[in-house]
Amino acid sequence: MSAWLTATVVAAEMAIPDGRLLTLDVPGWDGSLPGQHLDLRLTAEDGYQAVRSYSMASYGPAGHVQLAVDRLPDGEVSPYLVEELMPGDQFEVKGPIGRYFVWRTMQSEPVQLVAGGSGVVPLMAMIRAHDDSESAAPFRMLYSVRSPEHAYYAGELATRVGERFRLDWVYTGRTPNGWPRPPGRIDREIVEELIIAPGERPTVYVCGATGFVEAVASLLVELGHDPLRIKTERYGGA
Amino acid sequence: MAVISRGFGSRRRGSNPDLPPGQYLTTDFPVLSAGPTPEIDRAEWQFVIRDETGTRHEWSWDAMMALPVEDVHTDIHCVTRWSKLGTTWRGVALDTLFAEVETSYDYAMIHSYGGYTTNVPLADLLDGQAWIAFEFDGEPLVPEHGGPARLLLPHLYFWKSAKWVRGIVMHSDDDPGFWEQNGYHTYGDPWKEQRYGDS
Ligand SMILES: Cc1cc2nc3c(=O)[nH]c(=O)nc-3n(C[C@H](O)[C@H](O)[C@H](O)COP(=O)(O)OP(=O)(O)OC[C@H]3O[C@@H](n4cnc5c(N)ncnc54)[C@H](O)[C@@H]3O)c2cc1C
Predict the structure, then answer these.
(1) What's the predicted TM-score (pTM) here?
(2) What's the rounded Cα separation, in Å, for the pair B40 and B114?
(3) Does ipTM come in above 0.95?
(4) Which of the four CATH numbers 1.10.10.60, 3.40.50.300, 3.40.50.80, 1.10.150.240 does domain A111-235 have?
(5) With a 6 A CB cut-off, is A70 part of the ligand 1 pocket?
(6) Is any ligand 1 atom within 6 A of the Cβ of residue A75?
(7) Cα(B83)–Cα(A18) distance, rounded to whole angstroms?
């Protein structure tokens, strides 16, 4: 496995009320597959260190690495990344990590993505890779967010929607005006209506906080999806 | 020398000598799995050890419960960096199960309901180091955490403690299991920080 590499923050922008996008310059970075994550290490003046994992929205051979980080109010690392870090600041990264929760361009089956909050990050890399490729595989994403303001990549996602990529939203706290469905979590009815049917044998990628992933994955299995075609990435938390 | 991150460190957690390098303490019990949580009926549950002659040593749920059960107090360390200290489990020692298995093979492939596998040297399963655990914190093990039964192998990173365990196949070589093929270290000693394999 590769060594720790120095990452320099090129850009840091608030993207949602309590989360931000970080763009990193990492000399020596070998690139990554869509869906992979890295380990991020912070070192304090006195040598104290903390490491956390973050998925990458970027993919491909080289170039800048892109992360999106939610601020957890009681967290140790995420409040620093979201509130204090500035362009020019440095930390270390190691990776890419994980060869299971990835999408490869040679996969030809339909793909259903299910994102909860910042769980969209590795799925964004898959959407970009799919859009940039000649792949004819149909892609569809169900993106669950607290409110319209809490969606990462809303603008870019809208431009990527088309014949090969369909996007559906679920709002858990507040919907846009005139939205047909009241706010609420992904339930059986939503899965039946907005997720590629098991009969089409999709590969389903589910990513987000652990509770979200558990709930969605068990609904999928109940509704007849093959457990071996459901790939999950759990971020932690309840 | 590591690069310093300006202004980092004000919210640090206290350091703890019981924690392997790069781990932090949690009081929750987070979940790491690659797919959905399977539901397994105890009436159909079965545990099988298969040796190099193809002989199958089988235990039903009731047969497993009839074996001597041990209380285990141990720390657990997940590759995703959380550790939990002083956890309490109950289960059957692998020594008890292997007492009736004759094998000259040195490696074990652990198999789970749902199709996942992980590889472990046989020596790491014996001498009071490993159990088939079916109780956590005085309660039956819930499916999210591997119930009805999981392997408990606390001296290695916790992905080796296979959830929903259903059997062991003896191997002559240290062939990589599911997690090890997908980026994790072949052995996984937390004190040596053996998290990831070569990729
Ligand atoms: C493979 C992987 C990829 C990840 N990718 C991302 C990503 O792209 N963006 C991102 O923002 N985070 C991601 N995470 C989560 C991230 O690693 C950290 O756990 C998170 O930033 C919290 O760190 P912290 O130090 O602020 O909180 P800590 O101090 O570690 O934890 C504070 C409290 O929050 C709880 N907690 C931890 N994680 C979560 C969570 N996700 N939701 C709710 N509660 C939680 C903890 O159990 C604890 O009680 C990923 C995690 C994994 C394992």
Answers:
(1) 0.90
(2) 10
(3) no
(4) 3.40.50.80
(5) yes
(6) yes
(7) 27
